[in-house]
Specification:
7 strands; Rossmann fold; 281 residues; 7-stranded parallel β-sheet; alpha/beta; 8 helices; 11% strand; 47% helix; globular
Length: 281
């Protein structure tokens, strides 16, 4: 999609971080924007920033893990902004832990947001884009959708699934000879609030008083430090998303240095050898 002015973008997880940055970039292109999130104060603040750029904007409180709420989001966007052209399924969380350490509540929360949230977005919005034979979908995965760092089993599982879903979506759209495009965003560490995901955990999926292992505590601190020290900003990622939508580019790899770890994983698979730790390469 090269002509963005006057079109409509939807961004989940839009009240902060990468979602906010994407929304602001779309607004600077003259697009009207709907942002969805669980955090109402953030929604209100970012919607105000968007309107200050001279576009129409709405903030819709949405739990992306719930199909009915994503359906309602789509209906409201069409009713209030007149349609939809770019959809960014971006909401995400990042609890850590070894593969055996996470609770059932952890898994249900992670799968609900990181995977079902994208599934619902694809299921709900793709038919609208197909009907007009125009649009673009951007699904936020991670470099953890292409490699498998230790200590983040749940995150890796969901992000690999998002990559698989988006690659399949690309092929399915191609079989229909549709002009609708799609991209998968795979950033590494970016200074955002994702390391503090616990603030948005639903009460119904609260964890019992389980003592975290020393390794889990240490890894959480490492993640927070890595996120804070990320060399690219959320604004940089937003700019990369805009460029990919304009160029109809599928893979959005914002951190080129990670390509060595991706290549090493592919080599290990093809050579039939034990997987190397991507954090040690």
């Amino acid at each position: 999609m090269k002509a963005l002015k006057g079109k409509v973008a939807v961004v989940t997880g839009g009240a902060s971080g990468l979602g906010r940055a994407m929304a602001l970039h779309f607004a600077r292109e003259g697009m009207h924007v709907a942002i969805a999130d669980l955090e109402q104060p953030g929604l209100d603040a970012v919607a105000g920033e968007l309107r200050a750029l001279g576009v129409n904007a709405i903030g819709v409180r949405t739990d992306v893990s719930k199909a009915a709420e994503v359906d309602a989001l789509a209906a409201r966007v069409v009713a209030e902004l007149g349609g939809v052209h770019v959809v960014c399924n971006n909401a995400g969380i990042s609890p850590l832990g070894a593969a055996w350490e996470n609770t059932l509540a952890d898994w249900e929360w992670m799968l609900g947001v990181n995977l079902w949230g994208v599934i619902h977005g694809v299921r709900t919005f793709t038919p609208l884009l197909l009907a007009q034979d125009e649009g673009h979908i951007v699904n936020t995965a991670s470099v953890a959708g292409l490699i498998n760092p230790p200590g983040s089993a749940m995150y890796n599982v969901t992000k690999h699934a998002v990559v698989a879903l988006t690659e399949t979506l690309y092929h399915d759209l191609g079989e229909r000879k549709s002009k609708v495009g799609c991209s998968v965003l795979c950033p590494a560490y970016v200074p955002t609030g994702i390391a503090d995901s616990e603030r948005s955990r639903p009460a119904g999926l609260a964890n019992p008083a389980v003592r975290k292992s020393p390794e889990q505590v240490a890894r959480e601190e490492m993640l927070k430090k890595a996120v804070r020290s990320g060399r690219l900003s959320a604004d940089d990622i937003g700019a990369a998303v805009i460029a990919a939508v304009r160029e109809d580019r599928f893979y959005i790899l914002t951190h080129p240095r990670i390509k060595g770890a991706i290549q090493a994983r592919m080599e290990d698979i093809l050579a039939g050898r034990q997987p190397r730790n991507p954090l040690a390469l």
